[in-house]
Amino acid sequence: MTEHEFTLILSAEPDEEQADRLYSVFDDGTLASVAGVPQVHFHRRAGSLVEAIRSAIADVRQAAFDVIRVEIAPDAVQQAS
Description:
This protein has 81 residues and is an alpha+beta fold. It is 30% helix and 37% strand.
């Protein structure tokens, strides 16, 4: 398994109780607000980037949050040969 790095942009800013709920679901993400944009930055181990993103979105949804978009650094995406 490989560690994949990406950020999920949330639909709403969590309050303290909601942040605790998010952290109770995962331990490989860091909740932040950058310029008023709520997000969770993940370092997730998975067989593929797609698997990592899908599982992280499922975790965030389990905590009753919606994901607006996924952000990935360009060098994190490798082209298939």
